[in-house]
Structure formats: structure tokens, C-alpha cells
Write a structure and sequence with these properties.
This protein is α+β, with helices and mostly antiparallel strands. The protein is about 45% helix and about 20% strand. Strands 1-2-3-4-5-6-8-7 form an eight-stranded mixed sheet.
Length: about 300
């Protein structure tokens, strides 16, 4: 017990930082108190060569299991089940080396714009700094500056393979509004936060996911999306509903369509139809490229 917990602490925490030392102590206490449950996750990662390599590469899933991450009201047992389902899916879908590589510091490009004056691209990646909301991300960068990212995990609900979005994050730059406005123009006036969702939906379809869910305002694990005056910084519910989502019986989650709804040309004012044709052609090209690249990654 102590040896396993100490190994996780050594690899998951920066002990030269006081906050990380505090988290390490709390992890040890929780690990000891809940060892009978937590050791099932250690045994899971010791189960075969691929899982051992994955855990040797990435100690964070064990730490994630002990913290109130992913969605509100999650328990140690539910987080362990979630983590196991995610990595089971990764191993079922991907070659071993890619399952390991994408579990921490690797990336896999799924789309790159044709623009020659900038490098605008999207890729699959897991960033340890975003581990509160999920286990993998679709990240969109422009010249190595983050524009948007959507963080998610894979799971099984009622024996169906599903993708669950834990959070969406926009740019954290001084000129964020101008940055988003410029890239929206490049996307033929298709909002970039809608574009990142469109890409996640394309990834889900290419991976054979049967359904997509997203964490609601009520289900968000923390309150850092709420301002001091209790107004929402990001209204997840409004965005999911705008994208065709519906609230599930569990108020912590929305179900989203696998395909983002589109207007028909008859619904578009005549003066805007040229813009919409260019937009739809752009989106179709994005979809086709993501499908080709993701399917090339599969076993």
C-alpha cells in the first residue's frame, strides 16, 4: 500500500511547490483511508503490459480517482469505473503505442487549415493541467497559441460506447476577443466554439461512438465557471441547447447530437447564401479530413 501510494506521489506531484506538497499529503491520507477501493485501480494498471506501460508513462489517473473531478457528485468508485472505461476504450480502438502516447504528452493531428499565412490546426492531446475535466482533448491552435479546446473522456453507458464532454475552454490571451473574431471570419463566420464542438462530434463518429453527452452547469465539478456575483462566465446549458442538445434525466448531463444541426438553404436569407455555401464547404472538408485521419489511427 505505502509503496504504491509513494510511487504515485513521487511521479505526480512537484514536491518543490508547497501547494503540490499539500496535495500529496492529502492524496496519501485518502489513499490509506480508501485503500480497499483504490487498490482495484492499481491492480487494473498492473493487469497487462500495455496498462503497465501506460501507468508508467502517466501516474495521474490514480490521483484523479481520489479527487472530486469530472462531474459534480462523482465518487471514488464512479471515478475508478470511469477511468477504467476510458482506458479500456483507448486500448480497444488504438494500437498500444498510440494509447500510451495519447495518455499524457503525445499528440495526434486531426486537421490542418489550408491557410498559408498561419498554422491553424487541431489535434488529440491529454494535458495534465486539464485533468480535472477529462482524460483527452481536441485542441485547436493558431501559431501554437490555444484558440479552443474541448476536454472529454470515453465511457460505456447501458453497454454503449459514448463520449462525454467535461468542459470547453477558450483562449487565455489579452486579445482573446479579437483573436476569436478574426478566426471566426476565417471560418466563414462560423463561431470557433461551435467549430471545436463540430470537430469533437467528427472524432466521436470516426471512433464509432454511439452517443455524446456533456456536463451541464449543474454537473460541473467546481464553481470556477461562476463569477463572484453568481452570474455564469460560461453557460454550458445554453450552448449545449443551441447545439441541439437536450437535458437528460440526470440534470448533470446533456445529450448532444452526433451531427451538428444545419440550416437548409431555404432557411437562409438570399443575401447570405453565398457565405453559407462557403461555410458548409469548409465544414464538409473539416469533417472529411478528421474522419480520414482518425480512422488512420485506429487498429
Amino acid at each position: 500500500m505505502i509503496a504504491e501510494l509513494t510511487d504515485t506521489v513521487r511521479r505526480a506531484y512537484r514536491m518543490d511547490h508547497w501547494r503540490e506538497r499539500r496535495r500529496a499529503v492529502i492524496f496519501m491520507m485518502r489513499g490509506v483511508l480508501h485503500w480497499n477501493t483504490l487498490r482495484t485501480l492499481y491492480r487494473y494498471f498492473a493487469d497487462n503490459e500495455i496498462l503497465r506501460a501506460l501507468y508508467a508513462h502517466n501516474p495521474f489517473p490514480v490521483e484523479q480517482a481520489t479527487r472530486a473531478f469530472f462531474y459534480a457528485g462523482s465518487t471514488l468508485a464512479s471515478r475508478i469505473a470511469l477511468i477504467r472505461a476510458h482506458y479500456d476504450t483507448m486500448m480497444e480502438l488504438l494500437p498500444a503505442q498510440d494509447a500510451v502516447r495519447l495518455s499524457l504528452d503525445g499528440e495526434y493531428e486531426i486537421w490542418r487549415a489550408a491557410d498559408t499565412d498561419m498554422v491553424w490546426r487541431s489535434y488529440l492531446h491529454f494535458d495534465p493541467g486539464q485533468r480535472k475535466e477529462g482524460l483527452l482533448s481536441v485542441m485547436m491552435d493558431v501559431d501554437n497559441v490555444h484558440l479552443y479546446q474541448m476536454i472529454f473522456w470515453f465511457d460505456r453507458w447501458n453497454e454503449e460506447r459514448v463520449l462525454i464532454i467535461g468542459a470547453m475552454q477558450g483562449p487565455n490571451t489579452e486579445d482573446a476577443q479579437d483573436f476569436v473574431r478574426e478566426m471566426t471570419k476565417r471560418a466563414h463566420r462560423f463561431r470557433t466554439k461551435n467549430l471545436i464542438l463540430y470537430m469533437v462530434q467528427a472524432v466521436a463518429r470516426a471512433l464509432g461512438m454511439k452517443r455524446i453527452f456533456a456536463v451541464s452547469n449543474a454537473g460541473y465539478y467546481a464553481n470556477n465557471h461562476v463569477r463572484v456575483n453568481r452570474k455564469l462566465k460560461t453557460d454550458f446549458g445554453a450552448f449545449w441547447e443551441e447545439a441541439g442538445g437536450r437535458e437528460t434525466e440526470d440534470k448533470r448531463f446533456y445529450e448532444l447530437p452526433l451531427v451538428l444541426p444545419r440550416k437548409t438553404m431555404e432557411e437562409v436569407p438570399t443575401r447570405k447564401r453565398a457565405v453559407y455555401r462557403r461555410r458548409f464547404a469548409f465544414l464538409d472538408a473539416v469533417d472529411a479530413e478528421i474522419e480520414e485521419r482518425v480512422k488512420a489511427l485506429l487498429k
